[in-house]
Specification:
The chain is an alpha/beta fold and 265 residues long. The chain has a single domain, classed as Rossmann fold (3-Layer(aba) Sandwich). Helices cover 43% and strands 20% of the residues. It is built from ten helices and eight strands. Strands 1, 2, 3, 4, 5, 6, 7 and 8 form an eight-stranded mixed beta sheet that branches. α7 crosses α9 and α9 packs antiparallel against α10.
Length: 265
């Protein structure tokens, strides 16, 4: 498997088998620097702020969240299903703890942890209920959980060719295991017996083509090309339209992150 735009978006479950896994690392590090994405991340930190005891950051990726939580006084350990990501995290932040483990099979004892956090992880899971049940198992009663994910059906871009936009975004969503993660996680938490469930929607504006291309459109377009759902003439007209809109300051788009909080009963 390669690590082109389509693979980076849709194959986070298989980083270790990628021919060039550095593509995934670069993608995550790029996302770390995007100011508009920091708002929901800060909300996840606030949800567990002041909680004493050890907690877990699930799907810790390249390790930044764990390092920031530790710097803020939290007892944090990161887990990721990729050995590549765990190695990268340990190299970047050697003072922090990172373990290789899947969201549905963590290395913790029953009731061992005091908080649980996951960001942009559940959309990549095939079995969300299993991950939620595991969260319930490892948490102490009354412990907070915070899970932040987009609902990819909330992604919108203004275009003179809305039918092309729809096909491109449909191609993107079709390759993601759980594209509606942001709006479905609360239901899974309720089914698992979590209480005090609350969901906050954070709209992230995308006002230029460059940002859209970095995090969504390049990947979505690669998927649309692979599926054969669009001809190159259609694609070029669409790209030209988006580029003109960006240059003239009328590019309009957004995505929505949903920050879900709850407590272990």
């Amino acid at each position: 498997m390669g690590t082109g735009k389509a693979e980076v978006a849709s194959h986070f479950r298989a980083v270790d088998s990628a021919a060039a896994p550095e593509g995934f690392i670069e993608y995550l590090k790029d996302a770390e620097t995007e100011p508009r994405a920091m708002v929901p991340r800060a909300m996840t930190y606030e949800a567990i702020s002041g909680v004493t005891g050890r907690g877990v950051d699930v799907g810790s990726g390249t390790g930044l969240a764990v390092a920031q939580l530790v710097a803020g006084g939290q007892q944090a350990v990161g887990i990721d299903n990729s050995s590549v990501m765990v190695s990268e995290s340990r190299a970047r932040f050697p003072h922090c703890q990172y373990l290789q483990a899947a969201a549905a099979e963590t290395p913790f004892q029953d009731g061992e942890l005091s908080w649980y956090r996951a960001e942009r992880v559940y959309l990549h899971l095939d079995d969300v209920p299993a991950a939620v049940r595991e969260a319930r198992r490892v948490l102490k009663p009354g412990s907070p959980v915070v899970i932040a994910d987009p609902d990819l059906y909330s992604t919108v871009f203004g275009s003179g060719y809305p039918d092309v936009t729809a096909k491109v975004l449909d191609s993107f969503r079709s390759q993601i295991p759980n594209p509606a993660a942001g709006t479905t996680t609360a239901g899974y938490l309720a089914e698992a017996g979590f209480t005090d469930i609350a969901v906050t929607a954070v709209v992230i504006p995308v006002m230029d083509y460059a940002m859209a291309a970095r995090f969504t459109l390049d990947q979505a377009l690669a998927m649309a090309r692979e599926s054969g759902s669009l001809g190159e003439d259609q694609i070029q007209l669409w790209l030209d339209d988006l580029t003109r809109r960006s240059r003239s300051g009328c590019f309009v788009g957004s995505g929505t992150m949903f920050v879900t909080t709850a407590k272990r009963a």
